[in-house]
Every structure is written in structure tokens, then in C-alpha cells.
Write a structure and sequence with these properties.
The chain has 476 residues and is mostly helical. The chain has helices at residues 14-33, 38-44, 54-77, 79-98, 103-131, 134-165, 170-173, 175-189, 203-221, 230-251, 267-296, 302-308, 310-318, 320-348, 359-385, 391-425, 434-451, 453-456. The chain has three domains: 11-198, Up-down Bundle (Growth Hormone, Chain: A); 203-257, no CATH class; 263-476, MFS general substrate transporter like domains (Growth Hormone, Chain: A, Up-down Bundle). It is built from 18 helices and no strands. α6 runs antiparallel to α13, α9 runs antiparallel to α10 (230-251) and α11 runs parallel beside α16 (391-425). It starts with 13 loop residues before the first helix and ends in a 20-residue tail after the last helix.
Length: 476
């Protein structure tokens, strides 16, 4: 009889693992549940549904900016205090989101929620790493990450159902009882683990990195929702790139940088993390674009739009073994070079989605996209981490987590900027042709993703096909 992932885990560890799993579920659910509710939020707040991407960007960008500091905060103040603070801030942020009466207040509340979300996953994973015996770590992380895979599967549908059954406010209110219970359980079962050493945190490097990420993301969002002038966008972009360049130079001369430059001396990591960043920009925009297209241009209800996202997540979960097989059969270079192009082509294929396309064909199209997208994530993550050892493994893992969240923010910002630009471009005497704007946006996003194949083509032809199973990175 096959053993379950939890078969070899001590019973005394189960409450802790359930707590960490719940935190991960809350974080991943909230990353997707908002997407199908954006048009309803826009109507309630008297905003355009095509200019609501900041609701998503505020959360993902805040999470990306704070992730590099999460490990130090847990080491400095203890895992129990930081996990409690994470749940508290996430819950308070959820309540503030539900009470928001303007888009500005909603965005600010999402920032508070993002601060909590940024700490939930890293602090929980760090606690498991330090408390669970080494021989039980793999089944423990498998146990913890399963709820994280369920969150994106049910998020869009649950969000659509709540919008229709009650109101969009409930996609945030459902977090409150879960958060209260989680906070109480944290005080009882979460160990208060501190770091053994008292190493200093690289605050100057962190500020350069955080400012650079925020400036680049705001420069993209400024082209659409924020309505910045082109001069402002250009200045933000230059300052952001300058800050990131300054961090690169800074990391080469200080003793304990956040992310040592030696990481990029490992070819698999440097190609993997850069490929992750650019390939995920397209993938990050799709959960924002697809539900919006279905509701704004094709007349779907929020629940129907949410149900249409189930094939993407379901096919993605089913395709994970296929991704591992493809890596072993063809190697990382061939697999990623081809699969990246396939993901881009599938994104561009949504440009032919019209009201006349049969529903069954849309479902097939979404499932095929989910399959290639999941294979892409599996290959990119394992490539990035497979050759890291010792202290570099922790730094590389943290950097990959940060890049994943940053690319989601950049993806939504880029998709929003393209959609706004094409909507204005298609404006005529009879109004704006939003469907044509969506079609052009999907083509551009697909082409951008295809371009990332050039990065993976730089891998050695003899790159190892060995796949390192790291279940903590299975959350996308």
C-alpha cells in the first residue's frame, strides 16, 4: 500500500503543520480570489473595470518587497511573534478591504494585507525547516504545500460565487474568522525559534532593492491606471533601474548582502531566475486578463468566469508529472526553449476568443494553456534551485520567491498598461472596442513570453536533466 505524504510525520508535529498549511492556503487563495471580483468592485467604487489592476499589484508588489526581510525578522523577533503578526496584519487588512469605500482606500488596505501575506509563507516554511527532523522534512513540506495548491484551484470560482451570492466584500470577510482562529492557534502551537547568530541585516541593500522593484512596477502601472505623464513614467523607470544597478554593485562589496553575487556564478541559477522573471511576466497577467475578458467583453457572470478558470488550475495540477518526464526525456534546455514558446502561443491564442466560440472549445483552450504553464513552472523552479547547496540554497530560494511575486506584479501592470493603451487606440465614434483591445493585449503578452525562450536557450546542451524535488516551491 502506498504511503501518504504524512505517514512518517510525528503526531506531535501535526498541529504546527496544519497551522502553516492554513497560512499558506490563505496567502495563495487571496492571490487569486480577487480576480473574478474586479468588475463588481469597479461598479461599486464607480471605477472602470479595465483600470482595477492596482488592487492586485498593491498586494503582490508589497509581498515581493517584504519577502527579503522576512527571514531576518523571524530570526530577530522569533517565529511565533512574526507568524502571529503576519496573521494579524492579514486579517486586519482583509477587514479594511471589506470596509473600503474608494479605490484609494482599497489599495491601501491591500498593502496592509500584503505585509501579512509576505510573512505568512516564508516564516511558516522557515519554522518547519528548523523544527522538523531532517528525515521528516520532505513529507512535512508535501503536507504543508497541498493546501497551497488548492487555493488557486478554488479561488476564482469562490470569488465569483461570493460576488453573486452576497457581495464582493465577502471575498475579504471570509478571512476574518480563519485569521482569528489562526492567531489563537499560533500562540499555542507555534514554537518561538530565534536565530543562533546575530548577523546584521543589509538595510541599505534592502532599501535599494525594494525601491527599485516599486519604481519599475509603478512606472508600468503609471501608463494605465495611475495616469502618470510620460515624463513621470520615464523618471520612475530610470530611478528604478538605477536602484537595482546600485544594489548589484553594493552586493559585490559588502560582507553580508541579501543575495550574494556568487549566486549568479551558477549558470543554472542565473538562467533559471532570469527566465523565471521574464517568462512569468506573461503568466502573471493571465489570471487578471482572462476573467476580465470573460465578464467585460463576453458577458459572463462572475461565477461563470470563475468556473472557466478551473480547467487552468486542474490541468496544471495534473500536468506536474508530465513536466518532470519532459525534463528527464529532453533536458532543461530543449524542454524550456520549446515549452516557453508553446506557453506564449497559447497566450496569443486567446486573441481568437469571441462570443461565437463554443464553450467546450474555450474549456479545451484553457486546459491546454494550464498544462503548458504548469510544466513551465515545474521546469523553471527546479532548474533554478537544483545546483544550490549550503548557504546559497537559502539565499537562492528566497530570491526565487521574491522574483515569483515581483513578476506577478509586473505582469499585471504590463497587461493593464497594454489593455489601456489598446482600448484608447480602438476608440472611435461608436465607442471603445474592448474586445479588440483584449485581443491585441493577448498577442503582445504571448510575444513577450516567447522572447524568454532566448534566455533558456543559453543553457548548456549538456545541462543535467536531474530533477531536484523541492515541494516548497510548488506554489506558483
Amino acid at each position: 500500500m502506498p504511503t501518504t505524504p504524512s505517514a512518517s510525520i510525528d503526531a506531535s508535529l501535526k498541529p504546527l503543520l496544519w497551522l502553516v498549511a492554513m497560512g499558506l492556503f490563505m496567502q495563495t487563495l487571496d492571490s487569486t480570489i480577487v480576480n473574478t471580483a474586479l468588475p463588481a468592485m469597479a461598479r461599486s467604487l464607480s471605477e472602470s473595470p479595465l483600470k482595477m489592476q492596482s488592487v492586485i499589484i498593491a498586494y503582490t508588489l508589497t509581498t515581493a518587497m517584504l519577502m527579503p526581510a522576512s527571514g531576518w525578522l523571524a530570526d530577530r523577533f522569533g517565529t511565533r511573534k512574526m507568524f502571529f503578526a503576519a496573521i494579524f496584519l492579514f486579517t486586519i487588512g482583509s477587514l479594511l478591504c471589506a470596509e473600503s469605500r474608494s479605490l484609494t482606500m482599497l489599495i491601501a488596505s491591500r498593502v496592509v494585507q500584503g505585509v501579512g501575506g509576505a510573512l505568512l509563507m516564508p516564516v511558516g516554511r522557515l519554522t518547519v525547516l528548523r523544527v522538523v527532523p531532517r528525515e521528516q522534512f520532505l513529507p512535512a513540506m508535501s503536507f504543508v504545500t497541498i493546501p497551497g495548491l488548492i487555493g488557486p484551484l478554488i479561488g476564482p470560482t469562490l470569488g465569483g460565487w461570493l460576488v453573486e451570492a452576497v457581495s464582493w466584500h465577502w471575498i475579504f470577510l471570509i478571512n476574518i474568522p480563519v485569521g482569528v482562529i489562526g492567531a489563537l492557534v499560533t500562540l499555542k502551537v507555534m514554537p518561538d525559534v530565534h536565530a543562533e547568530d546575530d548577523s546584521r541585516f543589509d538595510w541599505s541593500g534592502y532599501l535599494m532593492l525594494a525601491f527599485g522593484m516599486a519604481a519599475v512596477s509603478f512606472s508600468l502601472d503609471g501608463l494605465s491606471e495611475l495616469g502618470f505623464q510620460h515624463a513621470t513614467v520615464l523618471v520612475l523607470l530610470i530611478f528604478g533601474l538605477a536602484a537595482l544597478t546600485a544594489y548589484w554593485l553594493h552586493a559585490g562589496r559588502v560582507a553580508g548582502p541579501l543575495f550574494p553575487r556568487t549566486l549568479f556564478g551558477i549558470p543554472s541559477f542565473s538562467i533559471g531566475v532570469l527566465g523565471n522573471l521574464f517568462a512569468r511576466i506573461g503568466s502573471g497577467g493571465m489570471p487578471f486578463l482572462i476573467p476580465l475578458l470573460l465578464q467585460v467583453s463576453l458577458g459572463y457572470t462572475p461565477l461563470q468566469a470563475g468556473l472557466m478558470m478551473v480547467p487552468v488550475a486542474a490541468a496544471g495540477m495534473a500536468a506536474k508529472p508530465l513536466g518532470t518526464w519532459a525534463i528527464k526525456r529532453y533536458g532543461y534546455r530543449r524542454m524550456l526553449s520549446v515549452n516557453t514558446v508553446m506557453v506564449g502561443l497559447m497566450m496569443a491564442s486567446f486573441a481568437v476568443m469571441t462570443p461565437n466560440v463554443p464553450v467546450w472549445l474555450r474549456i479545451v483552450q484553457l486546459a491546454i494553456f494550464g498544462t503548458f504553464n504548469s510544466m513551465q513552472f515545474t521546469a523553471m523552479n527546479t532548474l533554478t534551485l537544483k545546483d544550490l547547496t549550503g548557504p546559497l540554497a537559502s539565499a537562492g530560494n528566497s530570491m526565487l520567491s521574491m522574483v515569483m511575486m515581483l513578476s506577478m506584479s509586473l505582469g499585471v501592470a504590463a497587461a493593464g498598461a497594454l489593455l489601456t493603451g489598446f482600448t484608447d487606440f480602438t476608440a472611435g465614434p461608436e465607442g471603445r472596442d474592448t474586445l479588440a483591445a483584449f485581443h491585441k493585449t493577448f498577442v503582445c503578452v504571448g510575444v513577450m513570453t516567447c522572447a524568454a525562450a532566448w534566455i533558456f536557450a543559453q543553457l548548456s546542451r549538456f545541462e543535467s536533466t536531474h530533477v531536484v524535488k523541492r515541494p516548497e516551491m510548488e506554489v506558483h
